[in-house]
DNA sequence: TATGAATGAGTATTCATTCAT
DNA sequence: TATGAATGAATACTCATTCAT
């Protein structure tokens, strides 16, 4: 496929897109190093090899840049969870794989966790990213978690039940990551990943057992 | 008891203390609305009806004000957990009471949750409150959680086991609160408090059952 | 003499005077350590064991304190020069003794030099010490230098000539002290005191020789 | 030469340079009026017709501005001394010319003297311009004085001797300028320039005579 | 597209001084 | 006399954003 065709189909990496990408790369590093409030547009521009003013040709504000960086992170998260689920042999395995992939993505990439936690401050800060952007990001997060609920349904859980399980897993992971990330878990001399593994295994087993009790043939 | 006696005993609310208190009240509101980094001394002073310079007669820095506000919150949390535990009839009840008191304190006082979450940004932002203040706040948090571990031990858990349970409960509560607070739980149409109750009940029952298996006479 | 009599004669060290003295002692240290601009009233008050506001019962302003500290220094300078001159056997000796005493006072007490140099910035700074105070300090400085001119006259110089010599000596001393004090003389690897000694000796010898030529009998 | 050519050769006064120059002009006036510590960035900006923030596009800090203003002054001083020395017919003339040019530069430009005196406060206030800037300025001063030593060597003085002479002249000039500048010389009804002339002439003659005694053929 | 220059609002903190108590 | 509290002005410096070029 020629570039011309690709362009007509809107799938090209235009120079404009590439520049945006480079700016986002730079922004990611700065946000990760300094936090959302700590990162200055000047620093991002510098890291990208631009003047601050130049960034305004590519993004409408500092918040827009942040939103895009965060979105990329959530997309990667979704991909990782999706990839982990694919090869699993049965529902229970899929459940565990999805949950642990979610957890491990952030355990392995603590800087993405920093990014993501901003989502949890948006509620307090009225002048955050703006409602629209916030909802879009929410959707990406929900999508990344969906495989957990799907796996539960596959095992036999009702939709409602599956959702609650998903929320529980999300909450437990978020809490453990919070503790681990801020070194507060060290304060209790515990290993976050072991705790998460145990939690997920327990929940998966419980669910499976209950389903077998309900429908022994399954 | 007359004011004079109170004074002699050093328990008076001196005018100085009262002013400090009023400033802290104002600061609390501003910190809650803006976060530590977002809140400006000027805003706090304004809210307290003071000039910025005047605050320095009462607190040595913005960070000192923040630390004090946060500490008050953690102390209240500890008191609430302590009060909840006291009347409980047995270990299992005490465990549930402590865990739910912890959770409900923050569910009922979402503004304290905002405050508390600063603790969870210390890892990212090392130049926050300073090591000393940070450790003091950590200690207050740990103290508030301690009754959970104590109750587990009372039920028969080993010390190590009790600690892990405490961490699990803490993590689950933190995660659920995070979700609820940022309205991300609504996205899953679930009730945080129900989820927490179920989680705590399960864990308490599990522990009790296991203990009975080990030592049927207990 | 009883205190009552002393008091009637106005020579007592009243409590008020003593307190002033203690404040001045503290101020001296702070001014010496921080410079006039660098020293804050708060620091002086702290060093004196007072509240800033309290100092205003003893001095009308920060500048008033500074002026008084500086005056004390100039008085000490005058005393030292006077004491050095007294035992000298003849005019030439007196000349050398006075000049070197002046120089050495500041060489030995570099902090007094810092104090004194303010005099040399007052001209630039309109809101310095105020004209009146400035003139009083000038008078003390002039008095301290007078013995140099007197010695020259004693040797036989005309009044005009003696004054010029005094100015020359003052200037040379000031210049060397400036260089030495700011370590700029080290940049030239020279010893300020040797240079001063040589300069004074030369000038004294010159004068004496010329006087002998004029009036061989003297 | 057209502007285009000048531009190609990089010798143009770009608009940027011109603005810098205007800011420096404004700064010079403010520094002269207020001193380094006394001068505020706000005042400089105001005098230059700018917002304080705008200055940071041209200079990295207040100290940087000061350093540049002072450096310009020292460069001018060096040029004046160099120009004065050039046409002199012999060593003794060169010595006198250099010394008097140094003196007269400051006598004619008392504002540069104010600037230069900062160099003499570095010893007391170590956190002034920073070591690097300080050393650079020192070098410019030393360069401006060098012709004095060179002339002495030309007359026949040993290197060591020449250096001491240079220091002496520097010190005497500095002292006289100090006195004249702060009007303390008027207090003695003397003329600074006459005193300096006499001092320099005496020293030059002394040196020349001594050299002739040592080596009559010279 | 990109820049350099500029702005105006903002930051925490310090200062000398005042004044009611 | 002395204090504690307060003020208002000042400090250097940073920020996101704008705009003419």
Keywords:
11 helices, 218 residues, Tetracycline Repressor, domain 2, mainly alpha, DNA-binding, homotetramer, Arc Repressor Mutant, subunit A
What does this structure look like?
- 4 copies of one chain form a homotetramer.
- The first copy, chain A, contains 11 helices and no strands.
- In chain A, helix 5 (62-85) packs parallel to helix 9 (131-155).
- Chain A has helices at 3-8, 15-38, 41-48, 52-55, 62-85, 91-108, 110-117, 119-122, 131-155, 159-181, 192-214.
- The radius of gyration of chain A is 20 Å and the shape is elongated.
- Chain A folds into 2 domains: 1-59, Homeodomain-like (Arc Repressor Mutant, subunit A, Orthogonal Bundle), CATH 1.10.10.60; 63-214, Tetracycline Repressor, domain 2 (Orthogonal Bundle), CATH 1.10.357.
- The longest helix of chain A has 25 residues, at 131-155.
- By secondary structure, chain A is mostly helical.
- The interface between A and B is large, with 40 and 43 residues.
- The structure holds a DNA duplex (21 and 21 nucleotides).
